[in-house]
Design brief:
By secondary structure, the chain is α+β, with helices and mostly antiparallel strands. It is built from 4 helices and 4 strands. 44% of the residues lie in helices and 15% in strands.
Length: 108
């Protein structure tokens, strides 16, 4: 039996993926209900809180662009700039972690 996914704000269980919004809080991926995210976190910006969801269309587009930037960096850049290009792959790691930890466990 798998543990449920619980909202970071209201501590209630998230029942399906359409109600799930994951974001980064202090370098950690946390789940929210869509309503809880919209009320409290949307528009809030700081060093520790990301105001863009990891899951969804914007997160998927960001991950794909990061993959292209990382591949370009490995193939065409040298030295320190190659390392900076590889840092773009961090967002891909966050996206995969979000999917494996939260989205995969919920029904559509």
């Amino acid at each position: 039996m798998t543990k449920g996914v619980y909202c970071e704000k209201c501590d209630r269980e998230i029942k399906f993926t359409g109600d799930l919004v994951t974001t980064i809080f202090m370098f950690q991926v946390v789940p929210y209900h869509e309503n809880c995210y919209a009320k409290d976190l949307k528009g809030m910006r700081s060093f520790f809180v990301s105001n863009t969801p990891i899951n969804g269309i914007s997160g998927n587009i960001s991950a794909v662009l990061s993959i292209f930037i990382g591949i370009f960096a490995v193939l065409f850049l040298d030295g320190f700039t190659k390392f900076l290009g590889l840092l773009a792959l961090v967002s891909v790691g966050y996206r995969l972690y979000s999917y494996m930890r939260f989205e995969k466990r919920l029904p559509d």
